[in-house]
Fold:
Amino acid sequence: MKKSRTPKKKPEEIGQTPLKELPMSLEDWEEFSRGVSFFNNRKFWHAHEAWEQVWGRHTEDERLFFQGLIQLAAAYHHLVTKKSFAGMMNNFDKAYAKLTVFQPDYLGITVKPILECIDAGKKEANRLGEDDLEEFSYDLVPKLQFHRPGNPDLLVELKEICNNERFAEGIRLFNKGYFWEAHEAWEDVWREQEGEAKTFAQAFVQMASGYNFLKTSKMTTALYLFEKAVINLRTFEHLRSTVNLAGLREDLENTLGQIRESAINSSDGLKLSHKPAIQLTTVEK
Structure:
């Protein structure tokens, strides 16, 4: 006799009991993080597809969290691609009902700012009406605040990287404006790493390469590398480090903004309003 499935709880029913942390495999984390990166780069359908992969691997009630994110991405996909007022608003409501249960954060995603953006987005859409939806302010589209839950081994690995002489040499070279030489030093460190530690080192390699390409006016390549570095740095900035990662990421986003706003040709130069530099911090032992 075929077993009947246990009925899944509704969001309000889940909210009445303690939330469980879903058992995430390495493959789950990679796909989940990829979805966050897609979303923050406004590739909403790609984010939807990535998160659906993770959702499909789970049967727990708490998988509704993934469904909430999927519907959030669907809402903005309806806005950007389909220009569908009804589709956007319908998915906003569905996403809000699910995500509100998982406050203040779940699986490394900070939930409250998402809910605030949904509220603001609905108000903006209602103000504009269906006919003027193309005037929707994209400043109201959230950037997901994500950090993978702490890994004690990762903290040790990052400390070892920061204490590595080649890594320190890379910082000295970078702060003097020798970006290619810094890239070479950090690439040596990157080759020695595995897993998340390798991604951490990669962010510095990407950043140094980006500034080197910027010096030679290869704007498209620099833009691509800076975007990758920002995504990688954001993953680690909640962790204690001797490098001010949040400040470094903000500097990169400033540089990205200047590149995007400039109307210059690739053969011209771009003079930055700030000097790229890595600031060190004091970490409590």
Residues 223 and 256 are 7 Å apart (CA to CA).
